[in-house]
Amino acid sequence: RSIADHSVENESHRASCIRKSFALFLFLIYTTMASKDYYKEVSQGAQTKTSNGYDAEGFDPIADTVGPGIYGGRVKRDEKTGKIVIGKQYQNHNKAPGPIYDGSGYTEMTEALRYGKEAIQKVLKKNPKAINEITTGGATPLHMCGMSQRGQLSTAHIISEGGAVDAVDTYGYTPLHRMASNDLAIGAKALLDAGADAFKKTRCGEDAFSIAAESRAYKVIKVLKEYLDEADSKSKS
């Protein structure tokens, strides 16, 4: 085949790639705008709102933050059995059924995680079971440690009190997955040191490493690499 034939073929392939990329770009713009419109609409009757005008208890797509209605909040319980009521989650943020928000904000434990050991112990003294409590989004205290810089500092203490290191929330995430998505290296290391499964996958087939890579969580990537290198070294010795 002539050089000209190859040139035409390459140009055709390049044009096809450009069209596909542009179509994907338009799709992402459309879905982002649709998401913002949806959450703006469901925020209309909210008593408190974020600075962007979204329900403070739900999802703010501009700030990419969630409130207690979606993660870490108090949940409804059956009056007779005391069991958590499962159903449609707040704002339908997660379309899978999960613990229903009771409308009263974050749990005491979720709040305590930001303040450390002393605050956590006060909660556990009143309710020892709070160490593995289930909140909105199926989040446990260790999941909530993976949601903020201050929260991650409580990871080791929650583990020492019996926190389940591989608990799974309604999104299919473990605490380590949360640390990876938010680049919280201190919390990630504490979980790995406690035996958390570094290879555990979400329902979509993601693991901590792929989540960290997608989130550009370079600090957690470093922690994971060091952990894997150490594990590899031990297996060879």
From TrEMBL:
Question: What Pfam families does the record tag this protein with?
Answer: Ank (PF00023)
Q: Which UniProt keyword terms apply here?
A: ANK repeat, Repeat
Q: Does the keyword Repeat apply?
A: yes
Lineage, top-rank taxon, reads: Eukaryota
UniProt xrefs under InterPro entries: Ankyrin_rpt, Ankyrin_rpt-contain_sf
Entry's SMART domains? Answer: ANK
Q: Where are the coiled-coil regions?
A: none
Q: Does the keyword Protein biosynthesis apply?
A: no
- Name of the featured protein: Uncharacterized protein
Species whose genome carries this gene = Amorphochlora amoebiformis
